[in-house]
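Example complex used in Figure S2.
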Amino acid sequence: MKFGNARSMGVLVLAAGLALAVGCSSDDGPEGIDAGGAGGGGYEDMGSGVSGGDIAGRSAEGTEAARRMGLRTIYFDYDQSSIRSDARQALRNNFDILRQRGDVRVELQGNCDERGSSEYNFALGERRAKAVRDYLVQLGLSSGQMTSVSFGEENPAVIGHAESAFSKNRRVDFAVLP
Amino acid sequence: MRLGGALILAVLLLAGAARDAAAQRPAVIVTDPSARAFKAAIQRFTDQQAVPDAQRLTELRERIGAALVFSKVFAVIDPKAFLGPDETAGLDGVPPPVCPDWSQIGADALIEGTVVTDPRGMAVQFHVWDVVRCRRLKRKRYFGNPGDVDVIARRIADDVIEAFTGRHGMSSTEIAFVSDRSGRKEIYVMSSDGTDVRGATRNRSINAFPDWSPKGNEIIYTSYRLGGQPTLFLLTRGRRKPGQLLSTLDDSAPIYRGTFDPKGIRIAFVMSVNGAPELFTSRRDGRSLKRLTRHRAIDISPAWSPDGRRMAFVSDRSGAPQLYMMGSDGSNVRRLTYDGAYNTSPAWSPDGNWIAYESRVGGQFDIWIIDPAGTSSSPLVTHPRSDEGPTWSPDGRWLAFSSTRRGNADIYAVGIDGKNLRRLTKGAGNNTSPAWGPHPAAR
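Predicted assembly (621 residues):
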């Protein structure tokens, strides 16, 4: 209960950094808590040539090349990371292709539909990628030929809020590494 | 005791209720029996310039009033009802206010002040009076640029609330969040009333999970900006180079979420080991690394208790994600939630008495709260569309969360009594992952 006789004056200087710093942009890396106004300006651009289909620094070319090679996407059930029986044939197909192309390294990209906690979905996507990797290793593929990453629910293949979209987003994509 | 210090929380215990009875549970579970809005009379501050800036003085009064009203702690009395003077005569060396003039019109608080402008900037000095007991509660001055009227008004309103309740208001606080309004998921910061939205990252990658440092000078976040695995970065006030954290750790392991301990020294984070996310703590550069969980399951969402001794987290070791509690050194793990099949996103209240979280009910999410001993849990936000990612205001009076009730995800705030729901982000893309920053007085 604060009924003190506030004799001492609280003098506070609002640091210049508190005010919205619109206007003059500095040259050295301008991302920050007050860095941008509504109009933006002075931001550091991390990616070069980022265009539609690119995700997290990966060009769409990686998944395109995988498709051209005949590598197939692996789909999963809701909340599951286990390999479905109908996915085993696709994995066999991918194994055959990659075994003959030892020069090709692929990134296994785990994905989820938008339901559920986004943080849990990063982990679930990772689990899915790992399930695919383990299956291929079991078939005889060298683990050195594969890396994996999870995009959680952040990289849907199909935008939509119904099962027809969800089922296409619960997947592991293959992407050929440059 | 009308102006009691401690907020008395009356919790309706609903132990043992079945999950399908959740719809019948009252959404209001925490009430303050003494709660009613105080009433504030705000004088027009005096400007001691030869030619006062009338517009600025009007704006100052309006903004203080708006911030007080928004907080729901105060109502504001229309100046037309004033018996006492509309404008502050002066502060020091001037007779004090005639308290009955103010208490008679129903005021609890009188705010009087002066503005002095000189080449260095603007100084706003103000007093807060309890006109019922006729005592001056607060005397304070803020310096700023002449354009900082709104910033200063919010600080004043928060101070008025602090004078009467012992806890600052939240008008001068900010909320960080993730938005895809630019086409990519970037971190944004806005004022706690939804105004003044500004971008904080613009790297065109995937950015997620903003979390404030205890002093509010930094935001830790997860980003895929390096093009490989996700890891943690730091945003600071003003424009700086993006700082990568955990520099001594191997960058081949994904790191999903970081959060500062209450002292701002150690970070708890989620790092995958052999494909299984585990919880770790370390110093900012990754040194003094301590592993907290060793389980094949998914262990994520570390949430430090306000005293730093315990950590709530999420694990699916039982088969589906549930809330767990352990010491912040990883000891004494015990499960917290048993109600509901999927519980995630724990967030401690600032007083340490509650943990808010999201619970899946019939395929969508509701916001629930539970006490840290796990003895009682109750729903707080139960809209049939998803409500996720709760975060507490630093005064513990509000929860912000993300909801898809209107289609796209927007950030909302609601009082902890379940009332005064308001939308903060207004229809620009999908807005998720809110993180409510500390009060500027913490800096």
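Chain A touches chain B through 64 residues (CB under 8 Å). Residues 15-44 of chain A form one domain.
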